[in-house]
Amino acid sequence: QAQLVESGGGTVQTGASLRLSCAVSGLAFSRYTMAWFRQTPGKGRDFVGTISGGGRNSEYADSVKGRFTISRDNDKNLVYLEMSDLKPDDTAVYYCASVRSRYSGWTSRVQGNYVYWGQGTQVTVSS
Known about the structure:
The protein is built from no helices and eleven strands. The strands form two sheets. Strands 2, 4, 5, 6, 9, 10 and 11 form a seven-stranded mixed sheet that branches. It is 0% helix and 50% strand. By secondary structure, the protein is mainly beta.
């Protein structure tokens, strides 16, 4: 049974940095594409970033490009989201998600493609 557990959320001020982690168990981690999504109350989940199984390819939402970096450690079954220059609009619950990679280097922005999800971690950015 796959399990994804996010950590690292918290309350920070505008301009601060934060690193989220997602610990994954129960699946062949390096064969899975990973992603981060975020959700605010009353809205659907929005794509943040995705990384291929081997870590070679990544994509980002325009709203976070240049400020957020997604990475992974396949030896430790961890995926990270490094967030810098945080803004109040980044306030959300952040979720990590995984799906078996369709081919080497595959990434996906599509929420419906992802099969396994964590429980989320709250990030609050105060102005």
